Amino acid sequence: xxxxxxxxxxxxxxxxxxxxxxxxxxxxxxxxxxxxxxxxxxxxxxxxxxxxxxxxxxxxxxxxxxxxxxxxxxxxxxxxxxxxxxxxxxxxxxxxxxxxxxxxxxxxxxxx
Amino acid sequence: xxxxxxxxxxxxxxxxxxxxxxxxxxxxxxxxxxxxxxxxxxxxxxxxxxxxxxxxxxxxxxxxxxxxxxxxxxxxxxxxxxxxxxxxxxxxxxxxxxxxxxxxxxxxxxxx
DNA sequence: TTTTAATATTCATTGACAGGAATATTCGTT
DNA sequence: AACGAATATTCCTGTCAATGAATATTAAAA
Lengths: 112, 112
What we know:
The structure is a homodimer of 112-residue chains. Chain A is an alpha+beta fold and 112 residues long. Chain A is built from 6 helices and 3 strands; from the N terminus they run H-H-E-H-H-E-E-H-H. Chain A has helices at 2-12, 15-24, 31-38, 42-54, 74-91, 98-107, and strands spanning 29-30, 58-63, 66-71. Chain A has a 3-stranded antiparallel beta sheet. The longest helix of chain A has 18 residues, at 74-91. The relative contact order of chain A is 0.13. Chains A and B meet through helix 1, helix 2, strand 3, helix 5 and helix 6 of A and helix 1, helix 2, strand 3, helix 5 and helix 6 of B. Chain B binds a DNA duplex (30 and 30 nucleotides) through helix 4. Chains A, B: It comes from Fictibacillus terranigra. Chains A, B: InterPro entries: ArsR-like_HTH, HTH_ArsR_DNA-bd_dom, WH-like_DNA-bd_sf, WH_DNA-bd_sf. Chains A, B: This is Metalloregulator ArsR/SmtB family transcription factor.
């Protein structure tokens, strides 16, 4: 369940990779195009794309010499769902600490 | 802008820290309680909580001896907004590769 | 078939970070 | 003031991952 979330997060938690992802929002791109648009060396670009691919964030399509990388939807949907599990929390009364402090106070004999 | 996103992602991209975050969904907790509920040692728990705090994911409230850690909303909202910038993309025609391949084909003289 | 473009991979180096053990700090209690 | 509970910090060590340089692979073009 949240194992995939970790994979997604780790893959995204790297500046250049995040840039790549944001770039790919505009549409599928070739390795060379990604490298050029972001000012990266080709080998590093390939390596980052491989990490993103392993994490299931992008898919590849071979076309002659070139490899076209394209965003996948699933991991982003999963991440979005996971974030959704928090939105319920905000609506609850957990955003006020006051009553929790009171509850805390009773737990054992601490004088404030 | 996306600098904060990176901080958020890096902080979350660690199994134990993600567990802590998910635990704190249920409400604010003491360091000791977090450690106990997740079977972690106290020092590691403190260290993870410090990272989460530096990233702005949790806030602390000192109460006598204890420190109560509580989730922050902002970073999660930001992450959610960032994810939102993708949802537009899915609706576009980028999910079909076909026409992109055609467009690609014209770029320079490659025979398929 | 030799060359050239596009991409992937390997290797070595380096820096960041998590884990464990030990210790320091803070504060309430007696 | 001394003790004990709760938490933070330091030090050390091992591991993983990003980087750069060089090289290998694949396919197209001449």
